[in-house]
Design brief:
This protein is α+β, with helices and mostly antiparallel strands. Helix content is 54%, strand content 11%. It has 15 helices and 12 strands. The strands form 4 sheets. The protein has a 5-stranded antiparallel β-sheet. It has a 3-stranded antiparallel β-sheet with strand order 8-9-10, with no helix packed on it. The protein is elongated, with a radius of gyration of 50 Å. The N terminus is likely disordered.
């Protein structure tokens, strides 16, 4: 019995001894693998960790060591796959960011790579990488700028160089770009001048500032342009006045400003009338008895047509009564008389642009017995029928034959030359007519 007990004890002791040996062997392998990993022998470390199987975190270390070996061999895709599996194990996250920086650099995104390197501090040589890129980035910009300069793209090259804030030869090269740009711009300005486009040439020389002799050339262009405009001034018409005024103003010169002001005084209101013609603005012109007692007053007209510088005016009121279709004499100044090309009664075709043909009569016309309908006067048209009878516009705006006992009114129409008369005031409204 005692012999059997001793035998069992011996077996237990052997088992415990074997377990202790295995434990010491795994620990030694683990510590040896850690040593190889710390010394940068990632392949040996990975092999040792992999032999440990599931011992402690040996499996994670084996994957980690393989990932670092892949980084060393520049097998970045494999390294990223291994590190991604490790999550927050050891420095897996930092290595993934380091891989991001490497890939950014490989793709030419140096600024982005530099930002990552700097964020990693001294990890995995990031300090040296950041220092290298801080030199490489401006050097690459200088190389790119030189390439652009060789292609003649000086503005783009200068932008790159100025962004370097004086690094290396960047300032000198940027000045060279400016010189070449100025010479090219000067040549274009000179070509414009030789082609006779003095305004564009002047503006181009002015844009060059003090470069070369640009200020003197700009003044030469200004003088030539002023002389040419003065020649055009001798032949100015209403149709050319607006363009000539704008040309004088564009010179930005006191003498030219005086000429523009004089032209505005002569043509400014007339040009406003032309611009407003489609809205049938109002005009004051001539005089005629208006009050019941026969007192004369200025007549109000509407512009109903404009062709070139010739405006057709229709009196806003019926000014007199007439048993036959005839025009009455108006009281006009000498200037107004010189501007009137024709004075007549309107035809139906002349009134086509108006939406309302009806018209009131002056107190004077009513006193002369002009016929009315619904408080509105009947007035003659110059059209005539085959019978020789002239129709009239009724109080409802219809064209009718006048009754025998009716005395229609006179609503005159004038055609005037805007070249021969100067309107100096007014905005064209009924309350503030051109005059």
């Amino acid at each position: 019995m005692m012999k059997r007990a001793l035998t069992l004890l011996a077996v237990v002791c052997l088992a415990l001894t074997a377990t202790a040996c295995v434990y010491r062997s795994n620990r030694e392998y683990y510590e040896r693998a850690q040593l190889y990993l710390g010394n940068g022998d990632f392949e040996t470390a990975a092999e040792l960790f992999s032999q440990l199987g599931e011992y402690e975190d040996a499996a994670d270390y084996a994957l980690y060591a393989n990932a670092l070996a892949a980084v060393a061999e520049e097998e970045y895709a494999l390294a990223r796959a291994d590190l991604t599996q490790l999550g927050d194990f050891k420095s897996a996250g930092r290595y993934l960011r380091y891989l991001d920086a490497l890939e950014k650099e490989e793709a030419g995104e140096l600024a982005a790579a530099l930002e990552i390197y700097e964020s990693l501090g001294s990890f995995c040589g990031s300090v040296a990488d950041a220092k290298r890129l801080r030199t490489e980035i401006p050097e690459r910009s200088i190389r790119e700028a030189r390439t652009l300069m060789a292609k003649g793209e000086y503005e783009a090259a200068r932008d790159l160089l100025l962004a370097l804030d004086g690094y290396g030869q960047s300032r000198l090269l940027a000045d060279n770009c400016t010189d070449m740009m100025n010479k090219a711009a000067y040549a274009k300005a000179n070509a414009l001048c030789e082609s006779g486009d003095h305004l564009a040439a002047m503006e181009a020389f002015l844009a060059l500032g003090e470069a070369l002799d640009a200020p003197a050339r700009a003044e030469q262009c200004r003088a030539a342009l002023f002389m040419r405009l003065n020649e055009a001034l001798e032949q100015v018409t209403l149709n050319t006045a607006a363009e000539l005024i704008a040309a004088y103003e564009a010179i930005n010169d006191p003498r030219a400003a005086e000429q523009a002001a004089a032209l505005n005084g002569r043509y400014g209101v007339n040009l406003a009338l032309v611009r407003a013609a489609d809205s049938h603005p109002y005009v004051l012109l001539g005089e005629y008895p208006v009050g019941e007692s026969g007192a004369e007053s200025a007549l109000l007209w509407r512009v109903i047509a404009l062709e070139g510088a010739e405006a057709t005016l229709l009196c806003e009121t019926v000014i007199d009564a007439a048993p036959v279709a005839t025009i009455t004499d108006l009281c006009l100044t000498e200037e107004e008389s010189a501007a009137v090309l024709s004075a007549t009664l309107p035809a139906a075709a002349d009134l086509a642009s108006l939406s309302d043909l009806t018209c009131a009569a002056t107190p004077y016309a009513l006193a002369q017995g002009v016929g009315q309908e619904n408080g509105l006067a009947l007035y003659w048209l110059r059209d005539s029928l085959e019978s020789g009878v002239h129709p009239v516009v009724s109080g409802s705006g219809a064209l009718v034959i006048p009754a025998d006992e009716c005395i229609p009114g006179v609503r005159p129409m004038l055609t005037i030359s805007l070249e021969e008369i100067v309107f100096t005031a007014g905005t064209g409204t009924a309350a503030d007519p051109f005059r």
